[in-house]
Amino acid sequence: MKFFVLSITLALLTVTTAWAQLNLAGSVTDEKGHPLEGAIVIIRGTSKGTISQADGQFSFRSTESLPLTLIVSFIGHHQQSVQVRGNNFRRIVVQLTPKSILNDQVAIATSRVPEAIQKSALTVEKLGVKSFQQSPSLSPFDALQNVTGVDFLTQSLLFKSVNLRGFGSTTNNRFLQLTDGMDNRSPGLGFGFGNVAGLPDLDVESIELVPGASSALYGPDAIQGMMLTTSKNPFMYQGLSAQVKVGVNNIGKAAFGPKVYTDMAIRYAKQLGTRLAIKASFQRITGTDFIADDYSDRSTNARTSFFLTDARRGGIATGIGYIPNADANTNFEYDGVNVYGDDVNSGGAFRFPDNYANVLLSKKLVTRTGYTELDVLGNNGQVFNNRATASLHYKLTNSLEASLGWYYGNGNFLETASYRNYFPNYQRHQFKAELRGDNFFLRAYTTQQNADGWNIGQTATAITNTWKSLNQWAAEFGQAYVETKVSVGLARSSANRGRYEPGTNVFNSTRDAYANTYNTDFLPGSTTARGRRFRDNSQLWHYEGMYNFTKLLQVAEVIAGASWRHYALESGGTSFSKQADGSEYTINEIGAYVQASKEFSLHNVTIRPTVALRYDKNQYLKGGLTPRLSAVASYGEHHLRASWQTAFHNPTPEQLFSTPASGSGGQVGGLAQAYTSAVLDTNPGYLQSEAALYQANPQTVARPNPFVIDPGRYTTEKMKTWEIGYKTLIKNKFYIDAFYFASHYTDFSTTQTLYQLLTPGAGAAALLIPANYRTLQVNTNTANEAFVRGVGIGVEYGLGDGFMLRGNYTYQNGLVTLYDTEGSIRNDLAGAPVIKRKMSNPEVAQLGRNFFNTPENRYNLTLCNPRLTDKLGATVTYHWTDKMWYEQGITAGDVWLPSWTSLDAQISYKFPLLKSIIKLGGTNLLNQYYTQGYGLARVGGMYYMSITFDELMR
């Protein structure tokens, strides 16, 4: 009955409004009369409007009464207001004049309400439809690499992590990704999977990026910044759009490349009547991944004598002392970066005892022969990705819109945390219901995912141990080494006889048995060997609302909002610890915020101060307030901004509850529940940095003591940050946006790498044999203080005739003050206190990892002209990133990554009659392979051609 009444009501509304429909139509051109495609046409004071077609024509229906005013805007042109009366509403002619610099964009990410970017009190960057069309990047998401201060960490072709303002991570949980207001990150793992589950490219309208703390309005997950991706509204962007993109990568790789890349996408949107609109979009990508194929000898502080030390100064580190040797025929300890099962610190090495029969092998560490990443995966690097959206939108009034949406992501990808993990068939659904008016919104959504994966390194180790135990392999190696008269290569070959060769039936069946059996279960037919598969099918429910009180108060702009979210962890014990009754943990979080701002004038200066305050509480942690004070002062085209705020970061569910499988290494959550599940309460581990010193010189270095962590003290990470910035437009052709920021972290959330003995009570002497312990990364708060400083500048210069030169430069450094457990400042090994010293300095890195993982310098340069002719456009971009000190996981390492460069370019041609654009482009055109993180994929050239048909059948 209720459904019937609702149906009749909707029908009456449609009939009532249909008679009053007004058909508005016209054209938009530039000053030379050339049609402008994609110009936005909106009725002033409403959200009703459309965009112009390839021939510049536009048309839409409205129930507004004449006369009315249209606001017409197009990127790179001055906005224009057009009066519409009874004599011109079907032949509206709009001519826009070009401008050199785009400086009048509107963003909502900084304050949750629309505001001009140049008057924002925070640093904000925005990319729109035209930016994506002009970018040589492969996708809208990839175009972020051109933005000031953005550091990508490319883990695989489709999985790239965005990092801002230091502490770069492949699993960056200090950065919030929102898609149409929904948290894009994995509910359990707590980090975004890049664009694996993002919007289809054809449905992306804009990406707004706010570097720096945004916790005052967006909560504790936005401590380092946030990104808002907005999809195209079907009332505005209508018709059928389609895109076909083909490309090639992995060129120049012997016996592997080149490989084909395909990308097909379609979108359809339609307005039905005056109030109802629908849309659906889909994208399918297939290709071959950029391969992680660095086979050089691994640089890691787990090596004995890793640091070059100065004995005269107490053994202080002066650099890296370990000399890599990538020849397994001569190197006892060869451990390839992307070779697995040969790890010096994760079950792939054997140390001969002091009393070994052959004195040449006494105390020698020898690594097994491992398998490459391609060997273990067995899929020749094939990747796929499916993304889809569907939504229904209904305008209850001209200013009140209700919508229901479905967002889907599916694909395979590689993820790097403590180890390299492979997800063969990730799937995620998000469902959203939203009611949005001019001064409020109510939103509810849920994230449901199926994320089964397996650990590549542990699987490789398991395969080698299934074939032959480590002890037996070492015994055969030792015997052969004696017989071959000191030949490492021949000894390896002898010990490797009968080894499971990649691609054989026995190798594949063994790998599949481990990869398809959960780490909580024994392999079929075994009572000792457990699988290596894990899952995270956790769910998230989120409810939030906001109201703008400005019209009611009329003295200041005031907004307030609140949110509640509920996590339901679901890993079956494969990733997260369980409760005592065997059930999975749930997590509740609440948050509420208020913001007030007021603009006033002082002589010729306009000043807009803003105050924001938010409170958040995770049920397992102490709650906290995050205030922000900011202001912007404007004098003509000069805008000076400043902000100060505090922020805190709630650990992710993974950081709270993660627990590795019995006997395996991995991450341990910071709460007592996870700590106990890993048996660290009764069998504490040893700090890797202390154990390595003892392992290198057991006769002279004292045996380390177990490192005991109090999980009851695990808390939120805190930060205070301030920033000043300046924007100006000089003579309408030279645009500058510069900033300086300083951040101070306390209760810093990080991981301590521990060696936990597999036999409790065996004593520190057992650390001399790698098979006696497992490597854990335990989440904890350090007493250390971290300081991050940075400057950035972005410039645009109009060269004339449509040519634009853009550039940006960013500098960042990370300093640390170290404290011991008693709160006293620690000294380095030379006795000097470690106070605000660079984290990349050897004497600091020697004392433990800090994971800053950020290059000090980087810049981008772009020369573009979207209208070389009325149909032809082109862009060239050059990237340079400085070398950086990089610390990663358990089986990656500690290393200076070299600097890298990339040259990208595209040329595009429009066919207005076909409403299409052909684009020919490439990234890393010179094909100079580089990595953005240790052990990650090596990124080479990607060359592509695409054809896009936009808004057919409108």
TrEMBL record:
<feature type="signal peptide">
    <location>
        <begin position="1"/>
        <end position="20"/>
    </location>
</feature>
<dbReference type="GO" id="GO:0044718">
    <property type="term" value="P:siderophore transmembrane transport"/>
</dbReference>
<dbReference type="GO" id="GO:0009279">
    <property type="term" value="C:cell outer membrane"/>
</dbReference>
<dbReference type="InterPro" id="IPR036942">
    <property type="entry name" value="Beta-barrel_TonB_sf"/>
</dbReference>
<dbReference type="Pfam" id="PF00593">
    <property type="entry name" value="TonB_dep_Rec_b-barrel"/>
</dbReference>
<keyword id="KW-0798">TonB box</keyword>
<dbReference type="InterPro" id="IPR037066">
    <property type="entry name" value="Plug_dom_sf"/>
</dbReference>
<dbReference type="InterPro" id="IPR000531">
    <property type="entry name" value="Beta-barrel_TonB"/>
</dbReference>
<keyword id="KW-0675">Receptor</keyword>
<keyword id="KW-0732">Signal</keyword>
<feature type="domain" description="TonB-dependent receptor-like beta-barrel">
    <location>
        <begin position="423"/>
        <end position="925"/>
    </location>
</feature>
<keyword id="KW-0998">Cell outer membrane</keyword>
<dbReference type="GO" id="GO:0015344">
    <property type="term" value="F:siderophore uptake transmembrane transporter activity"/>
</dbReference>
<comment type="similarity">
    <text>Belongs to the TonB-dependent receptor family.</text>
</comment>
<protein>
    <submittedName>
        <fullName>TonB-dependent receptor</fullName>
    </submittedName>
</protein>
<keyword id="KW-1134">Transmembrane beta strand</keyword>
<keyword id="KW-0813">Transport</keyword>
<dbReference type="InterPro" id="IPR039426">
    <property type="entry name" value="TonB-dep_rcpt-like"/>
</dbReference>
<feature type="domain" description="TonB-dependent receptor plug">
    <location>
        <begin position="118"/>
        <end position="225"/>
    </location>
</feature>
<dbReference type="InterPro" id="IPR012910">
    <property type="entry name" value="Plug_dom"/>
</dbReference>
<keyword id="KW-0472">Membrane</keyword>
<keyword id="KW-0812">Transmembrane</keyword>
<dbReference type="Pfam" id="PF07715">
    <property type="entry name" value="Plug"/>
</dbReference>
<dbReference type="InterPro" id="IPR008969">
    <property type="entry name" value="CarboxyPept-like_regulatory"/>
</dbReference>
<dbReference type="Pfam" id="PF13715">
    <property type="entry name" value="CarbopepD_reg_2"/>
</dbReference>
